[in-house]
Amino acid sequence: MARPRSFVLALVMFAAAVGACAGNMGVVPTSECSSGLQWLGGDSGNALMHPGRDCIGCHASAGKGPRYALAGTVFGDAAAKDDCYGRTDVVVRVTGADGKFVDLAPNGAGNFTARSGVALPYTVELRRGETVIGKMQTAQTSGACNGCHTAEGSPGRIVAP
Ligand code: HEC
Ligand code: HEC
């Protein structure tokens, strides 16, 4: 008798887990998001949440979420809207004033984060393998990359061609 009951319970839990994941992400036309994917989970805490938005600023004002020293999102196009999923196929190399660097790998939404920072000010290279495909010329001191790299105006998003 226990067997069918636990089978049903497992099914219910499986459905709940799939439902929770599916609810966080939507497939959208590429005219909406060039990646074809969009975050739909609102403010529910998740490493894939709100690609393109200012992670550090919102977590600080909400008093919730991880305290990152560096955080941002890599996109495929300069005008990508908030919550569109970005790109995963690059490495973000952040080099501190002392020459020490960290390599950050964007997750499935294009989001990259680091809890400990580098010596300020820092510079940035986008790399694919050993090839540098993008470089921030000006050294910066704020780790909130998406605070400057918005969909509107200059400099636009952090873009991996
Ligand atoms: C508009 C506000 C807002 C923005 C923007 C935001 N977050 Fe969050 N984040 C939250 C809140 C609120 C929580 C806490 C949720 C909770 O405790 O239920 C959270 C929690 C998290 C968590 C913890 C999940 C867990 O398992 O506890 C991660 C990881 C996270 N955020 C990553 C990010 C990243 C990366 C970005 C930027 C690309 C980002 N967030 C942008 C509001 C935001
Ligand atoms: C205070 C604003 C500001 C902050 C913070 C900032 N950037 Fe930038 N970024 C710019 C500006 C302005 C440019 C264009 C001029 C230049 O290259 O310096 C730029 C250019 C870039 C470029 C080159 C253009 C491209 O898309 O390939 C990359 C890559 C980049 N930034 C990545 C980052 C990353 C990663 C962070 C966070 C660790 C970050 N930026 C934080 C303002 C900022």
Protein traits:
161 residues; alpha+beta; Immunoglobulin-like; 3-stranded mixed β-sheet; 22% helix
Note down, in words, how this protein is organized.
With 161 residues, the chain is α+β, with helices and mostly antiparallel strands. The chain has a single domain (28-159), classed as Immunoglobulin-like (Sandwich), CATH 2.60.40. 22% of the residues lie in helices and 27% in strands. The chain is built from 3 helices and 9 strands. The strands form 3 sheets. Strands 5-4-7-8 form a 4-stranded antiparallel sheet, with no helix packed on it. The longest helix is centred in the N-terminal third of the chain and has 23 residues, at 2-24. It is globular, with a radius of gyration of 18 Å. Residues 8-20 have low confidence and may be disordered. It binds heme C (HEC) (2 copies). One heme C (HEC) binds at residues 43, 45-47, 49-51, 53-55, 58-59, 62, 64-66, 71, 73, 111, 113. One heme C is lined by residues 70, 72, 92, 94, 124, 126, 134-138, 140, 142-145, 147-149, 155, 158-159.
Under CATH at level 1, the class stands as Mainly Beta
Number of strands: 9
Query: Per the principal axes of the C-alpha atoms, what is the gross shape?
Result: globular
**Kindly state the mean pLDDT as a whole number?**
90
The helix tally amounts to 3
Strand content: 25-35%
Helix content: 10-25%
Q: Can you list the strand order of the major beta sheet?
A: 5-4-7-8
Q: Can you tell me the CATH topology?
A: Immunoglobulin-like
When the domains are counted, the total is 1
* Major β-sheet annotation: 4 strands, antiparallel
